[in-house]
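Let's practice the habit of predicting before peeking. Look at the sequence and jot down your guess about where helices and strands might fall. Then scroll down.
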Amino acid sequence: MSTWQIVLLVVLLVLIALFVGLIIYGRKMQKKQEASQADIRAGAQTFSILVIDKKRMKITEAGFPQIVIDQTPKYLRRAKVPVIKAKIGPKVATLMCDEKIFDIIPVKKEVKAIINGIYVIDVKGLRGGLEQRPEKKKFFARMKDKVSKKSK
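Done guessing? Here is the structure:
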């Protein structure tokens, strides 16, 4: 075997080892996330809230208590998170929201929310259902639609 074949073989083995390591690490992190989601759901309560405003902003700018900012890892403090300003009973509170439900939360409407601390886990419509936004079409699906409209 020549030297370039040996180098290629070594690089291939390193890439395979890296890939296997990433798979193992990913499974471990997934189990950890499922356990933390179970803990979050266990302590959750249902509230009727009036959503005043929603936006994505940095944790330091959102108006959360200082203890929340201190407990957040430094690399995540600059990341933008979905934030909801809502009226819960007589108080106006700033809440952090799950990324999956942020788009379906209506503004200036009352919803029933499942909340754990300052984290909104899920929402349901209080009077009627929530408006589901149509799913975004992928690039090739949009191009296919354009071509089919032009051919008609």
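How did you do? The chain is about 40% helix and 30% strand.
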